[in-house]
Amino acid sequence: MPQPRTGLNIVVLDPAHGGTDPGARGTGGIRESEIALEIAAQVRRALESQGFQVVQTRQGNENPSFDDRSTIANAQSGAVFVTLHVSSTGLPGTARVYVNSELPQSASANGMIPWDRAQAPFQGLSRKLGDIVQGMLAQRFKGSPNTAQTASVRQLRTTAAPAIAVEISSVSVEAREDIDRMIPGVADAIARGVAQFKPSYVVASAPGATP
Amino acid sequence: MTGRWKYWVLGGLAVAVIAAAIYFPVLRQRVRRAAKLQQQSEEQARRDLTQSLTVNPGEPRVKARLFWASNAEDPTLTGVTVELPLSNDPVLRSKQVLNTLLAGPVDSDLRTLPPDAVLLAFYLLPDGTGIADFSEALGTSIPSGIESEQLAVDSITRTLEANVPKVQRLKILIHGQEVETLAGHLDLTGTFVVNTKGTVAPAIVAPTPVTKPVTPVVATPAVAGKDAKTQQKR
Predict the structure, then answer these.
(1) What is the pTM of this model?
(2) Which chain B residues contact residue A17 at CB under 8 A?
(3) Cβ contacts of residue B73 below 8 Å, gap of 6+?
(4) Nearest Cα residue in chain B from A109
């Protein structure tokens, strides 16, 4: 019996790091893990105002493993995944979107996808989502690239959904306010980007289904 | 004791105290220096050993191309041509170019790898897979972030690509072990393509699946079999 098909309705937000892992740290005491959580809160509000349901991989100062975070995303149906980061480097006030480096496509005979390369079937969609969000960010943050970059981001590899990493620069700014000022623009760009991407993502209803 | 002897003894003691006061800072400095020498890390000693083994001035000097950052805030790489005495042996040659890459460019702001990182070993498998084993400082001293970690790996793979054609892909180990990420972001569980034949960005080739297939096409819960993976914290 054919599976009913539904559209994108869930966004999984992943504030990177947390717990004993602060991520990137600035000399002024700025911690990536704290800012990522703050970005997630504002992105969540922006997405909910667009009618999306939002799931977060962490709510507070915990540090789920990479696989635990992917598990949360892979259990959803019709979801996209956005992992949120703050870099140590780069031109302050810029933002970059990353999609995972190419993975070999290899579903086994029974149609299952190996966990280790769960992102493989979604790479085209991830690229599309990444380019849209990067375009939105480039309009708001001068000096940012116009298209998504490619990187071997561990968190993306095991995620069975269109998945991007958003990284803003940087923890090396002198004052926390310099980053805080970026957050509303980042939130708006991600929410608008996901909304623009929505029509191009039609998925089967089963969690983790291939596109 | 007569009064005269008392003065002699007191005078002698005063001289001894003055001499000790003069000598004490010198002695303290020497003790500190000795302690510092003792603290010289095993990795530094290994670096000295490795470099003396791999840099052979007798080798013919050839133009090597090394990839460092374009500028301090730009996440792109620029190839710099440097004349180096390089071996024809691909393993020795890989060590030589990677040690030069680690030593860094003239402008230290353009480094892509931490100054205290050391190449501990390099192996080349018959299928063209190079295995570079770096010290822990590669992960602990590098600025954490997707951009900086990718730049570091790109500088390694592009430098090998430009100088050692036999290395087709690269596996990076940290102190002899496979690690999940370089510094919390970049995936080190697979191998990176080196011989890209015109492609600029390195692509990761995922490891051969050792776990059960876990993400279903339909119906089966996506998490089935996930626990077969080792749960590694960041």
Answers:
(1) 0.79
(2) 184, 234
(3) A89, A90, A91
(4) B213
